[in-house]
Specification:
The longest helix has 14 residues, at about 75-90. With about 300 residues, the protein is α/β, with parallel strands linked by helices. It starts with 17 loop residues before the first strand and ends with a strand. It is globular. The protein has helices spanning about 50-60, 60-70, 75-90, 105-110, 125-130, 165-175, 195-200, 215-225, 240-245, 260-270, 275-280, 285-295; strands at about 20-25, 25-30, 35-40, 95-100, 115-120, 135-140, 150-160, 180-190, 215, 230-235, 300-305.
Length: about 300
Amino acid sequence: MGNATTWPCRLCGEPATTLLFEAAGYPILECPRCELAFTGQVTPAADPAFYADRYYTQASDYAADQKSAVTTDIAENRERLRTARRYARIARGRVLDVGCGAGALLATFQRAGWECAGVEPSRDLAASASTVLQGGVHQGTLEEAPLEPATFDVITTIHSLEHSLDPIRFLECCHRLLKPQGALLIEVPDFGSRAAHRHGPAWTSLYPDVHHYHFTIRSLTRLLARTGFRVARWRRVGGLGALAAASPPPSAGGSAVPLQSPQDRLKRWLFDSRRWLYALPGAKGALRYTYWHLLGMNDALAVVALRSD
């Protein structure tokens, strides 16, 4: 553990949070009371224009992957659709995807007969998603989206909550928009994972310049309880950071951390080669099973939350 700081916890207000470490020049703090970890410094992503115009120019490969995935029902999205049906207890309904990218997940729901809406801050990706969803996408933030309360059976937010400047307000908006029997599907990097503990400031999924919050299942459960939700199911799932298990990507700044072991060098090669490896029949599933299930290297959380009122 590091030294106490005077930066208060953004969830419970605890005045003396603990400095865990610095990553790429950003302090990562943790609250001793509620265990919420967060980046204790204003980042470039705090500027509203950052996600609208600049973020995906720095992550052009991701943006291209998002657009190309729209026409394919990838396994992860089919699983999310099955989860939504199970916990919302309907075969089809109305779904909102917050941080919908180019609309790949919503396209899977749409092909299954769901009525779809999305929120996406990137102008480029929101325009692509609007084409897929016939205009049902708000470009901007969830908090400012003109959406009617209690009108969605399911809300999905896949690797978006950690980017929020105010996750309490974010989840309160989700609560307001969900129907009483609705389900909220959340996926975030798992700050409590083995990979996160092992690699600390070099954990690939940390991204301290754009991830304002770093959740464990305990801190996320507490946050959900405060905003009117109860956790119905949670599990650890794979993230590409588990394969890389090395230094933060260039967008996070800072110098690379040398890889020490042959295992780490192998994981880096697998991560860098994932595009052509995943194109091989059965390779993606085999890699995920080996690294995420046999070796327990899952470094993301998938949580289903239901309204507790």
